[in-house]
Design brief:
This protein has five helices and seven strands, in the order E-E-E-E-H-H-H-E-H-H-E-E. About 50% of the residues lie in helices and about 20% in strands. Helix 3 crosses helix 4 and helix 3 packs parallel to helix 5.
Length: about 170
Amino acid sequence: MRCWADSSSVPLIGHVQLDRSVCQTTTAKEDTLQVKQETKKFMLDVVQPILKLHFKRDEFLGRINEFVIFHPFSADDLGEIVNMELQKWRGRALARHNLALSWSPELAKSLADGFQESYGFRSLKHEVERRVISVIVEAYERNELKEGQAVKLSLARDGSVVIKSVLAEE
């Protein structure tokens, strides 16, 4: 689902009116093309007038080489980030303690739901460390995990992370 601006309602910021969002379902290719078009339109219609209003002189504007636009993460992006973070910890557990970590898709989705936009990627990193790694460390310190084991992580009904099965590798 992709949301874009519809010129009708939101108040002015500076001298530029922001618009109410309208949503439509599109394909990924259409979505990417639409995001690029909307970003270019946003730069021309919103950012450039604000910069001209602020700097007032074209020689200052000429010194700006490029703009970096940060688009919000999609649900798929968040899922990929969580899986990359879990895979990083899987590599560490295997290299340092010979533990083979795996996890349920529900766990990854639950961790992605912990995303806080104001903190960006760091919120997902901390969510993984707080909810997953701490459980593994506690189990390891209580000698519930031994080197050479496969550890399956899943989500309990209350939303906590549990070690669902630990199978000894032979």
